[in-house]
Queue: 3 jobs
Job 1
Amino acid sequence: MKSCLLCGVGGQGTVLASRILAQAAMNQGLFARTAETIGMSQRGGCVVSHVRIGEYVSSPMIPEGQADMMIGFEPGEVVRNLSYLKEDGIVITCKQVVQAVTASLSGSDYNAEDMIAYLQRKVKHCIVIDGAEICNICGSGKVLNVALVGAAAQSGAMGISVEDVKAVLAAKLKPQFLAMNEQALALGAQCVTQ
């Protein structure tokens, strides 16, 4: 069984990314379970999605220390949830900060470079992608989730290929959004060297 924890801030597409991963696995004939824990169910709240894939999956929730991979839409959220990652797990994170509403309300502030430096010290396999650049190239801020899934697929950690994800996109997206999402998928994949 493979487990992936996705974490970010509401409105970034975390839940949709988890559904893309799960559908790619199901298209391979595997069993997939997903669950979300959402701090504030509005744009700007903390969002964590659990994805578990395998021949048999009894529970959608990933126990601490059991995630093969973490996909971080926001580096501070990865740091906050790092206890879920296996010792030899992989982290793929976007380097841009999107501060959650809870942090803004508390008056706390942090630096993305500090968070990424911490992750690179603590995690053997940490891949940082420039989500803002990819979104700029693709012409939409709404493709970050697909770029991160592309990097995750390219890493091989979940047993899902970039082509598997591409097939899900072709089946699920409206034709007018397909090309830019395929471009984001490819750019995300290019950020990973195996």
Job 2
Amino acid sequence: MSLEVYKRIADFGKRLAGLDQVEDSLPTISEEAKAIVNAERCSIFMVDQAGGMLWTKHSDGIGKIAIGLDSGIVGDTVTTKVAQLVNHPYEDSRFLVKIDEKSGFVTRNILAVPIFNSRQEVIGVIQLLNKYNGDFNDKDEGIMSFFANYISGTLELALLMETK
């Protein structure tokens, strides 16, 4: 990862520090994630362990999404606690084709990265769709894993503040 990317993420952290509501931070995080890896769309799924669901309060180009905790590539990211790099989603049995059918969007490639809390539990997943210049690669996965670690404290704090 280049020094410029680290600096960009550090500068982003300064902006993010001023936000204390998940509703405010998710769109900001999404826009930055897309810019860092040059992706068309980004959704941030939050884990609801009690309800057995993954949900978005922010997803580009489509309304809220709610799926089962073990559904799709995002669910697999939560279950395995490992990033998923899928450059041919329609060939992957985990891919939830119905979401594309409902939205009219065509997913070419996916990078899904877990977001961990301070107890190393997955609290969310950053899902990026359709890299503009080719397929997602290991470098993108490394950058987004670093980014997810960087933003995890902010999201954990915001979620704690929401429950009070």
Job 3
Amino acid sequence: MPDPEITIECDAPASIVAYLEDRLYEFNVQATAIADGTGLTALLRDENNEIVAGINGHTWGASCEIKQLWVAASQRRRGIGRRLLEAAEAEAIRRGCVQMLLSTHSFQAPGFYEKLGFERIASIPNYPRGHEQIFFKKVL
């Protein structure tokens, strides 16, 4: 019997991404016996209820990982990013987390995170080409 065909998809629907994340979380729980994973999202909406800023990640095993932090160009330089990160940090502490983790790129906001007490712990050069991905950690 031939091997099943592998298909490549661009921009998989959110339902597929969620399915894969759920299966990986199930494996991680089985491997670690740590089952306290919970999403963490905070949003700022304008007067039309449109999202103009947000932060998203999760807590698991006494750690908080931030996956996305975004502020609309029209809302930048007003302290909103700092407020979102501080809100996520306060919630992470409330949940018993002892550290926060995130990554950014050299063209994004490494100085912003450093000003807020994050320590650079690693980087990957040439990701993307001509730039670097930087990993940060903050002890809570």
